[in-house]
Structures are given as C-alpha cells and as structure tokens.
Amino acid sequence: MTKPPRETLRSSRYNFLVPIGDDSILYNAGSGASIRLAGQDARELARLLCGPPRNVAAGIIPRSLLGGLRRGGFLVEREFDDLGAIRERYWLARGRTPMVLTLTTTQDCNLGCYYCYESRSNDALAARDIPGIVDWTRGRLAASGRDSLHVDWYGGEPLLNIGFIEAASIALQALCEELKVSYSASVISNGTCWPEDAAAFIREHRIRQVQISFDGLKVNHDKRRRYRKGRASGPSVSSFDRAVEVVDKLLEVVRVDLRFNSDRGNQGDLEGFIDFCRLRGWFDRPFLCVFQLARISDFSERAGFLSRTKLSEDEFETLRARARRLVPDEATLDETTTRSIYPLPRTSVCAALANDSIVIGADGNHYRCGLQVGEKNRPVAFRGAGREMSPGPDAGWWDAFDPTLQPNCSRCSFLPVCWGGCPKKHLEGDHGSLHEQSLYWRKALPQKIAWQFGVALDEITFSFSEAEQFRSAEIGSEA
Fold first, then answer.
1. Where in the chain is the domain with CATH 3.20.20.70?
2. Mean pLDDT lowest for which of 12-26, 170-184, 303-317, 434-448?
3. Most confident of 2-16, 35-49, 203-217, 233-247
4. Are 256 and 212 in contact (CB under 8 A)?
5. Mean pLDDT value of segment 227-256
6. In contact, 57 and 478? CB cutoff 8 Å
7. Rounded distance between C-alpha atoms, residue 106 and residue 123, angstroms
C-alpha cells in the first residue's frame, strides 16, 4: 500500500519570535495573530517558522498546534502570495478609509516658533470659498457613498480665522444633515486664540478632538513660542499661560491631545511638564487627556536646518521610555509611545492616501498632505484665476503610490503594520527618515507584542534585527 503524499506548507514571511523568559511568543504581522509557546522545543519550532519563508512538512507539527498555526497565518499554502494579499488589502483600505476634509483656514500665525515649517503669508480661506468647498464635498460624498465626514481645522493658527470656521462649519453640517451623513471635527491649535466660551464653541461645531502644542515648561515654551511683533495683547502675555487656560476649559467638554514638541534643547522639561499636567488634574478630568510626544524634525523641504537640533531615533526612544514611566496610565499616551495598543495589521491609510480625503490650503489649492500646504510645487490641484481647478504635477504620484512596490517596503516584514510609513517621505526621497521609521518598528513592535502577555520589554531587553525586518522572498531549505 502506498503512503498518502506528505502535506507541505510554507512559513509566512511575516512571522516573528519574541522570547520572554523560557517561553516564546510567535506573532504574525499579516494576520495580527499571536501564540505563546512554552519550553525549548517550542522555541526551536518558533525559530523554524521565522526568518525567510521555507517549506514545512505538516507532519512535524503537533496536530494540536497545527490548526492554530494555519488559522493564524503562520503556515500558509505553498502557492500563497503573501505580498499580493497585502497589496489587495492596501488598495481596499485606500477606498474604505473614512473621509477627512482638512481646511487650512489661514497661513497666518500669531506665534513665531523657531522650528515652524509652514510658510507664513496673508493667504486665508474666506466666505466666498465656502460654496466651492461645499460643492466639492457634496460631489465626493455622493460619488463615494460615504456615511460620514470629518473636518480638520488646520493652519497656521486656525482660530485666527474663526469667522470662516463658524460659517463653513454651519454650511458643512447642513450638507451632512441634508445627505444624512454623520459629521465631526477636530482642531490643531497653539491654544492662544480661543473664544472665552470655549465649551460653547466645541458643542456648536461638533468638535470631538483638540490638539494643543507645548514646547516644555513655561520658560522654554514662552522662549520658543514667542508672540510675533504686535500680536500679543500686552507686553507680559504668556503663550504658555494662555494655552494652559484653554486646556483647563476644554477638558470639561472634549478630548485634548497635549503635543509635547521635543528636541535637544527642551527634552529636560519632560518630567517637569508631565508632573505639571498631573498636578493640574488634566489626567483626571471628564474627558480624556492624551500626552502626545512629538519630535521637532525637518518635516518639510523648507526645514532642513532642524537636522542640527532634532533628537536621533535612539534619543527619542529614550524620551519615550521616560514618558511611559511618568504618565499615570498607558491609555493616556499617544499610539506611537504606548505599548498597550496591540499591533494589528493596518486596515486604513493615512488621510493623504485615502481616495476621498483632501487638504484645501489657505491659497485655495488642493494638497494630499497637510505638511505640504503652501509649498508652491506640491498641490495636486491648482486653483486658477477663475477658481477652476487644474491638476498639479504630483497628482499622479499620489494616485499610484503603493508601498508593496517600493524596493525596501516590498521585502520588509513590518509592511502589514506599517504600510511604508509616511508617503511624503517616499515622494521626497527622504531615505534618512524612512530608515528611522524602520528603527522605530524594530524596537516598538516587540514591546507592543509582549505587553499583551503582561511583559514589559524595552529596546535594551529585545529588539528585532535588520535581518529579521528584511527577508528574502525565496524559499529556504525544507524542514
């Protein structure tokens, strides 16, 4: 009697091993599944399944484990196209990601931050722009069949043009009510120009999230975020005190993200600032207060000078570790710093890549990325003298961008949870920033995986290597 043919499967290229004591966590970035395995034999099996894909005889796997490995995507059919599956998921996400309309109310700002990458100008959206914005939004909602719209009020300092916000908000809310589409909004602000009754403003304009930026404690903040000449209401007005006052009010009615902009000159304020927030009671208010650690960096082509003062990825990771020790709860940290958010594969994309999202600059031009607003060569649609729109040179690039076709991303095993990082960096060929993104995931991914099993790793305890990140797609030796 002939024996039935031996079933052969293939290990996924997205498998990772995280050792915790005598046990091993096997994690698959393509599915988000994880399994805790005990003992040395399990460690050897986990090592066998990680690294470059290889054919695996199903018979060498205990039957009690084999089904879970297949369901979790750790073992796949030999002909399965891992990268093709990620590509299909990516393009579906570009069409399914919720619609975000970013409105740059003004390029003006009352503060003069030394690191600001925005071009200051008198450009501002006005009442005459509202019908065109509403018509564009109506057409996009109708074509896409969307059931929600999110508006992000952006600048400059967006509340310097509060009259436009109030008029455009009313018009867009009316449109959503007419189309039976849900509406929400958010604001990115320096915190110095809010109306006295901030709560009423939040409720009237259905704002669900506000970001307020700080540059450390009062001395550092006021030195770095000075009022521009003639823009303060008095000689002793502090931008720090004004921002603190508005956060006090906002946390009664809305979530607030406190963005701490860090570099080599103010990183020493971190402990004192978090202590200030705690003593102020911001972490115990009716609405969530999220501490958002940010790195002052050369986000724009105009901000290359910041490379001299920005923290390296290693220095910034050290700052993240300090923040984690200081905040009351991981839930009060932003998603790049916290370990408590499990690394599921991506199902949405950056708004810059979403099919139905757009950034409207204060100049009336359309952009894909808010960090490009005001860069004269970067609109994806230019507004002509007759207010008609014509395509910009980058429009085709944004429409076609696919991380699974990028030379490094296509062989990166973090791809399902990262999707290539910031697309703007790809457009600009900023290989240094893309490399830093790789370093972040090598350190952060094992931390996030282990946290779900009650283990607090840091980058000193364990990090993934470059070889574990970038793997050959060729099938290795059979096991």
1. 96-332
2. 303-317
3. 203-217
4. yes
5. 94
6. yes
7. 6
Separation between Cα atoms, residue 42 and residue 28, nearest integer Å: 16
Both tokens of residue 211? 């970001």
What's the CATH fold of domain 96-332? Answer: TIM Barrel (3.20.20)
| Res 389 pLDDT > 90 | no
For residues 328 and 280, what is the distance between their CA atoms, to the nearest angstrom? 13
Helical pair 313-326 and 431-451, crossing angle rounded to 10 deg: 30
Euclidean distance between CA atoms 302 and 292, whole angstroms: 24
Name the residue type at position 241.
D
Retrieve residue 11's tokens: 């290990």
DSSP-derived 3-state class of residue 430: coil
State the average pLDDT over residues 158-166.
98
Question: What are the φ/ψ torsions at residue 101 (nearest 5 degrees)?
Answer: -110, 110
**Residue type for 470, please?**
F
- Phi, psi for residue 56 in degrees, rounded to 5: -130, 125
Lowest mean pLDDT among 110-114, 164-168, 270-274: 110-114
Q: Which amino acid is at 126?
A: A
The helix/strand count (H/E) of the chain reads as 15, 16
Token code pair at residue 185: 């909004």
When mean pLDDT is compared over 1-5, 202-206, 304-308, 429-433, the highest value belongs to 202-206
Cross-strand bridge partners of residue 28: 15
Provide the strand spans (E) within 113-271. 148-155, 182-189, 207-214, 255-262
Question: What whole-number distance in Å separates Cα of residue 113 and Cα of residue 223?
Answer: 9
Q: What is the pTM of this model?
A: 0.92
Determine the residue type at 310: K
pLDDT of residue 305: 58
* Residues 6 or more apart in contact with residue 114 via CB below 8 angstroms: 224
Tokens representing 174?
Answer: 């009316």
Mean pLDDT over 248-258 rounds to 98
3-state secondary structure of 259: strand
Facing residues of 402 across strands?
none
CA atoms within 13 A on the CB side of 191: 28
Local confidence band at 410 (pLDDT 50, 70, 90 cut-offs): very high
Per-residue CA distances from 5 to 31, 264, 386 (Å) = 29, 63, 72
Residue 309: the pLDDT is 79
